[in-house]
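note to self: the first set is below, dont mix up w the second
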Amino acid sequence: MKEFAKIHKKYTFGKNYLGRFFFTSKKPMEQLQKLIFANDFHKVNSAFKLFQRHFNTIFKKDLPVLKNWKKLIEANLKKNSKITQEIDKRLSILYETKPSRQIIKIFLLLSAGKTSGGGANIEKQKSITLEISGSPPEKINDALGIVWHELIHLYFEKENYCPLIEKTLPQVPEDKKMKIREATTSALFPNGILGKRYLGLKSKGALHFSLLKASQTIPLLKMTKEYVGKNLALDESYIKKIYRIIK
């Protein structure tokens, strides 16, 4: 498992995400073999063979839970379609892009314990992941907050905001630009301004546990709240200020 964990750290994001083939392909090992080095593949394949029976036991238990989450999310989105439209419109103003009319695929995945999380840009099609099996049904709004967070990364920030960051801070390293994008998104969802307004979610100290300090949250939320309240698009001034907050 230690060897597998080391390998997994090499392939954790986007197109190189190691796990994506196991829910996007009928022959995951064949696809995985094309992605990673032969020595790494041998170790991964050995680990999966060793723990296959244990995984099947867990998956058998959690599959009904994932199916229930699917029904719960679909029912909630249908029931609260007006809120969905309001959020869509609000994000379109902030990011200066048209309201989304695309069909987005959401992959519901097993989660570690009671934690939940998500990811975007998992495959060529427009899709996101939601790790949710360990969360109780009453956490539906938390789950939707994560969905909106990932939708911002997948769709809303792409057309104008990401290029604007490049234009405003051309000399800033890519990891800092990523941090700006993540901080902006976290200031909105799941526990940011829009998560609180539309989903009733509360800020839990730092907005992003691995990226932002609790002390950075207050000025970030204050600035973002002003842009939301005045129906302003995120601009160069916002980007420069957020960079000063997080660097």
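second set (the one i keep forgetting abt)
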Amino acid sequence: MIIVVVDNKLRDLPTLISLANLLNEKYHIDVVLANIFEIDDLILLYKNEIDLILFSYMRDANKYKIAFARLHNIKIIIYDQEGANGLDGLGVLNDIKNYPNLLKCVNGYFFWGKKQLQGASKIIKNKHEIALKDIGYIRFDVNTNLLPKNKIFKKKFILVNSNFALIDPRYSTAKKEIEGVRKSNLYGKNLKEFILAMKNHRKRFLSDIKTLVIKNPKINFVLRPHPYEKIHTYEKICKDFSNCFMSSKYSSLNWVLHSTLVLHIDCMTSIEALSLNKKSLSLSYIVKNKNLCYKVPYLSSIHSKNFKDANNKINQIYFKGRKIKVKNIKTFKNYFGEKKNKPLTKLADELVEVLLSRDTRSNIDYKEFKKNFLATLILSKFPFRTRVKIFLRKYLSSVFFIFIYRLVVGKKIAKKYDEKCFDSKDISNYLKNTNKFKRLYSNSFIFSK
């Protein structure tokens, strides 16, 4: 059995459904699409059946989950779903530098592009005998014919994507988020400057988007903030203008596919637009220092010299279908791979290769393990609180469970859990044959022959 962890359903769910379906169809392997909150429970319940877990990153939030899987001799693959993060697109390398103890737990580390693989290879030097592969960007490979058609916004529209979750987070505080990236050294010595620049970018972006909405009453704008970004400001803009709408439903791929243009500064959805042959326009004039933005998506879009230029290009593309070439395609390919290489199929094949190969990880040094991951050793003893939680998740409806969960952990964490959960309806949106999966436990579903 393979567990595929879904961390961000609005970003990852369609492609991970395709991955689970492909593994099940091609290799006849049982695959569980698992809510990230339920990994520990699944390991405790099915430790003798789970052979491999695919995690979407190797950072603090996953630290104890990865260690817990290692404690039970489950093979572990990391395929980073934010694999071109950081100012230079190589932020993933900081995870490898910062978590050497976690690296010992891992069987394979897979990357989007050659650039990330080359950088990681220099750091790891394969001293841990880890399988290192450049897979490509699997969201290139989703079957767009399976994306919901009738439920998506039916009018012609421009999609506006923001990515300011770091400074205006939905489920946390800016202070906590900034401290997290400081610890990871994601932005190095540029952190303070980057945070200040992002605050300025956000202020100008929201102001200019509002002005664009006002100046162009015949153009429909759909605002789609980052899934982990607060939405109040966007809701207010939409409330004030009849040609402006907001949605956080469905995958970003759905909205990109049906849009006429993607508008952003340096958002990763511009990469998805490129893969779907959709135009994306960066309000690049907002960025005063090119070293203080996300390099790869910034470079992979049409640029605008100023607000007037951006407005003109929007009108020419929206009403006249003007074609404008995107430069820096080589940069884009180095960090994301190519759609023609079928990254989803490649990921499935590489997962199976690791699954069938000999486990080359060193034996656990329990003294060191206890020092670094004491919480996992405590959890492995199946404490009473965990037994109660599993019982409630297993036998209560999600509504009743979340009500109780809110009383125990607080409103903010319970809300985060609720909004990250996916259900059978979400999965059915992206499958032709809905008989292929069933509920295994709580909000985790198994694909089985």
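remember for set 2: The two ends are 12 Å apart (CA to CA).
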